[in-house]
Specification:
It is built from 6 helices and 5 strands. By secondary structure, it is α+β, with helices and mostly antiparallel strands. A hairpin with a 3-residue loop joins strand 2 and strand 3 (133-144). Strands 1, 2, 3, 4 and 5 form a 5-stranded antiparallel β-sheet that branches. Helix 4 packs antiparallel against helix 5. The chain has helices at residues 4-7, 19-71, 73-93, 100-113, 146-157, 197-213; strands at residues 117-123, 127-129, 133-144, 165-174, 183-194. It is rod-shaped and about 125 Å long.
């Protein structure tokens, strides 16, 4: 096969081309087809393969994490049971709803016993929190010395039932502007008690009734009619 064989090719008589030229042309066409097929087909599949490989790595990692959780499942169940027992023990130490009136009286009496002047001690409506305890706010305004307030806190801590008090928007300031004199304590104190299933059910029923009554307003009767 010579170079002149390619120069004298007759495009209208492909069957008359030299055998060597036909082989070379077939090889070139084959190579072009392979390159074109890779470009249009295999290259896109290569990108998809890379995405699948990344997805595989993510699935392997997720599987390892879930496998570790399954291995520790029994230990986690034991830990959950222990925490549930601790929570039940703590709730048993809190007063229940029937004990709250006496507890409020005890707190008020503790303030009087140490010489504090109670100008306001007004319990508000309670709110059930998280389904197992209730929060009851008390608006207070008291006057006394620093040591009297300290004695009051000690007296509350010595009550037979566990009393949890949290303060919100509370201010403590001198009443006469003198350091070491009378102090005024004013704000809201929250106390807590445990709740049972019946209280939870009652709270849910009350909320449903309130929601049903909310859209309409009660009719106002005119006087004399």
């Amino acid at each position: 096969m010579k170079l002149s064989d390619f120069r004298n090719l007759d495009r209208n008589n492909i069957g008359g081309w030299p055998q060597g030229v036909k082989l070379v042309i077939c090889a070139i066409v084959f190579i072009l087809l392979m390159v074109g097929g890779w470009w249009f087909k295999i290259s896109t599949q290569q990108d998809e393969l890379e995405q699948k490989q990344k997805q595989e790595e993510g699935l392997k990692k997720e599987f390892s994490e879930k496998q570790a959780k399954v291995v520790n499942l029994e230990a986690l169940k034991v830990q959950l049971d222990e925490m549930s027992d601790m929570l039940r023990q703590l709730l048993l130490q809190l007063p229940n709803k029937t004990e709250m009136p006496k507890l409020l009286v005890d707190i008020s009496q503790a303030a009087l016993s140490v010489g504090l002047e109670t100008q306001l001690f007004q319990p508000g409506p309670e709110t059930i929190k998280e389904g197992f305890y209730a929060e009851k706010p008390i608006q207070i305004r008291m006057h006394g010395t620093y040591h009297q307030f300290g004695s009051f806190i000690s007296a509350v801590a010595a009550l037979p039932r566990v009393v949890i008090l949290t303060m919100r928007d509370v201010s403590l300031k001198p009443t006469d502007g003198k350091v070491g004199g009378q102090l005024s304590l004013e704000g809201t104190v929250n106390t807590y008690h445990s709740v049972d299933e019946s209280e939870n059910a009652g709270a849910g029923t009350g909320a449903a009734k309130a929601g049903a009554a909310k859209p309409g307003a009660a009719p106002v009767k005119e006087g004399g009619k």
